[in-house]
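Ticket reopened. Same input as before:
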Amino acid sequence: MQKHLQRDMEILKNKLIVMGGETEDRVYKATLSLINRDARMANDVIKADQEIDQMEVEIEEHCLKILALYQPVAKDLRLIIAILKINNDLERIGDLAVNIAERGVFLASHKEFEIFFDIKKMALKVESMLTSSIDSLVQLDVPLAHKVRAEDDEVDTLNREMYDRAKEVMVQNPEHINFIMHAISAGRHLERIADHATNIAEDVIYLEEAEIVRHTPEVYED
Amino acid sequence: MRTPNLIWRLFPAQIAILLAILALASWYYGTKVLQDFETTERLEGLEIGTLLLEPRVTELVREGKFRELGEICRQSDLPGAVRTTVVDRDGLLLCDSSREPGNRENLSYNPEIKAALSGEVGTAIRFNGASDQDMLYVAIPLIANDRQIWGVLRNAVPVTSPSGALRKLNQRVGLGLLLAIITIAWLTYITTRRISRALGEITTGALRYAGGDFSRKITVSGPAEVVSLAQAFNHMVAQLDKRLKEEASRRNELETVVSSMVEGVIAFDHDANILYMNDAAALQLDVSRFEAQGGNILEVVRNIDLLRFIQKTMAGAEPSEGTVVLNRGREDERILQMHGAQLADPVMKRLGALIVCNDVTRLLRLENLRRDFVANVSHELKTPITSIKGYVETLLYEAGEARLHFREFLGIILKHANRLQAIVEDLLTLSRIEQESRREEIRLKEGSIKEVLAEAIEVCATKAADKLIEISLHCPDDLSAVINPPLLEQAISNLLDNAIKYSRPESMVSVEAESLDSEVLIRVSDTGPGIAAQHLPRLFERFYVIDKARSRKMGGTGLGLTIVKHIVQSHGGKITANSESGRGSIFTIHLPRSSRDSLTGGPAAQAPVS
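Engineering reply: fixed in the latest deploy. New output:
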């Protein structure tokens, strides 16, 4: 019985890792299409979203099956719960990537304007957070998870800077307000992705330490 | 002692059988043979006794003294409580020591009586109900003078337990038996133990082999069969050992071959767990081979391209090809080209996949550089050509208006043509230097630095004079290094050219040389506009210009510094630029004193630079 449970857990974990990888890829392509104003790449991302949705459903069903079949306890139970929640977060991140791609489509048709804030820096940061959060799950690396939580503050700061800059630019170039709004939207989506990545990290911490750290400030020092 | 089993099986069984047989034999002997012997002896004794008694009895009967006869019967004192009986010729009881006659008993039915009545000595052994024991009977016929049988005299003794003699005999036999048993038992024990010990040796030896120790052969002494068994064992083990060694060496060969490959080789099972990964693969994927073994590829290398490639490989029947980018966008970005095929065992059951990967990062980077270079060159060459064509066409087709600007247009055309020429020359120089340094054709020999510097200054003298710029030279007369004078001269003059170009009129350009422990430093400094920090890293790149407009105006090709860098590198040295916006620039060339002290690993070790 134990052997079957372990095997099913392995399969489930692998499925989640695959979904994580695909989500990372979507985020990367979405932000790239935004920066490079590549409408084709953006459309690819939008079209591929249903794959992510399908994966989410599959993983959830698999989790329910394991719960019903094996009634796991303790560490295994926490793992299933963590996977259920992370599954949800990944699907949301996939949706946000689509949103960013949609902004990318718009900005691609307005190539003459430059994005007024350092979106590349923000994107790199967010992608790194996402990768680290999934890594922390795979390796069950709690210090890494804490690090991800700490990095969320940086992204929030970048977001605030973006808003401040946007206000300036809007005043200076009122005719480009539409463009600026789309750009702000993209930045906001990135910030939301960072939040979800943080959620994933918190779920990992819960899994390992059976402690819910959500809503508590991160005071972890490297 | 491992022998109990065999010994305790053989030994007791043998002894038991022995005991049984001997006991049976002795019982038979004791009860039957000896008894019969004794019985016979007794019978004979009885017979003799009876015969001795006969005359007396006959006399008494002839005289008719039956009462005396009775007395005799009663009083007959043969040892062993004898019972005497006399019967007449018809079998009628005349007298008996155990009872009174007179009942007209007839004993003729008794076999011994019957035999005696017919003239023979009769004997019998019979159970006697009256005395409740077995009795021995001897009957002799009483023969009268006229040879007529007138009666039978019979004596009887009970068959009792063996006499003392017999008992003693039996004891002796018993003792002998015991000794025999002990001896045989001991001999059996010895033999059995010898066999079981030999077998034990073989067992120990076999266990030793099982433990992997093939060093000692099994040697036993004992019965021939056991020895042959041991020898056969040894032979079998020797064969096994040889075969195992062959297998191991074959496996080692394979392992060595795969390990030495530059290409990475990874084998997966159908769950994407890593079955095998060689060193090259571990290096390329940046994982530890230890951690990777047995783990799932998804956890070990979390890369979506790799995952998709593995899925593609396992899904398709044909070998697949793909590209995987690791650490995308980061500094340590790595691009691997992968070829994958399914692993199938002879039963055509799918085992997993095999992937061979090549690190093509450098290759792709080179390709990118080349592409950029070609684009750059094309652009640089096209621009002057377009201009030239434009002005030439104007001159050709538009007379009149154009004539006024005749000289001006021709001047411009000439300028562009010169520019083209300069670019092409520089490209050729660069190409030549690269080629020569690659083929190690650049000859270096000990030469005077001061001479080279002086020559270079000479070459630029005119241009300097035009702008009233003074070039100063500070160099020890005896300073020398291993150099290629013409090339070094060209490098210095390129630097001077730049310095002069970008300095204000009437300013100073200085050339200094000094020697340190293992290297020679040559510095060209100017007080021109300087170079901003962000340009410094890319300064020596091909066609890199800070200000396109100004560079073109000055007639620059964008290749000057690149040429300098290549020349310096082919000397085994390096060049650095120090500058700040508005504060002039200093270009420092470091040259090794001798070709042994190469600072960059020598010309042949260069990686192609941009």
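Chain B is about 50% helix and 20% strand. Chain B touches chain A at residues 271-272, 296, 298-299, 302-304, 307, 328-329 (CB under 8 Å). Please confirm and we'll close it.
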